[in-house]
């Protein structure tokens, strides 16, 4: 695990633990379902953060005899676990908030409750920006999921803020309505994270822009007459490429081999591509 990813995951765990602590305290003191739901969301974020830490450490291991192409699928698996947690949490909050809508219950909203949510929103905005930057730099789908989750948490805390504000101004059911909206948002976020990581695990074809860049890099190599076929798919969060190039059949075996090596190195030089396999087709 490189130092950037390690530091990012440690910051992720620390921030989520801090936010859970202040949110659950404020939620229990105010008897606000929206704030307690937000705190529960932060608790699952702690679990997800630990899973992401383990996944990133695992994915950074070198290839071995049992895993000849590395351990890159560890991060999408972590992303799937994050998505499952989000879905379970969302449905549980939805179930609770709908029943609470049918009941009357008192709130004890204070300025401290508002302060906690404002702090949460500010921290999550910073976390979203930071983790997005690190995710791009390290090509980490797990940290990208964390960045997306942090951004979604901004909306979750904002909804909780609106809910308790409604309670203060004489509309106590606004708190339960906010909790319901929070649950739906969490379910939606979990679905999107899950769908993205399923694509990684199922070997989805990369974006057409990447496919075009592979062709351009290959055909630019001296001696390559054309491209017969290009196949590419994700192995975890990295891409494996199979490419067929056409060469003059008069070339010696050594010359053809060297051109193939140059094509492989050029393709593997593209960001996100881990392995390239080159097939040589001789033509007259």
CATH class of the largest domain: Mainly Alpha
Number of strands: 3
State the CATH architecture of the largest domain: Up-down Bundle
Percent helix among the residues?
55-70%
Radius of gyration: 25 Å
What is the fold-level CATH name, i.e. the topology of the largest domain?
Alpha-lytic protease prodomain-like
Would you identify the regions where 5 or more consecutive residues have pLDDT less than 50?
none
- Strands in their spatial order, largest beta sheet: 1-2-3
Largest sheet: 3 strands, mixed
Please state the structural category: mainly alpha
Instruction: Determine the N-to-C terminus distance.
Output: 49 Å
Spell out the CATH superfamily of the largest domain: Cation efflux protein transmembrane domain
Can you offer a commentary on this structure?
The longest helix is centred in the middle third of the chain and has 29 residues. The protein has a three-stranded mixed β-sheet with strand order 1-2-3. 69% of the residues lie in helices and 11% in strands. The chain folds into two domains: 199 residues, Up-down Bundle (Alpha-lytic protease prodomain-like), CATH 1.20.1510.10; 76 residues, Cation efflux protein, cytoplasmic domain (Alpha-Beta Plaits), CATH 3.30.70.1350. The chain is mainly α. The radius of gyration is 25 Å and the shape is elongated.
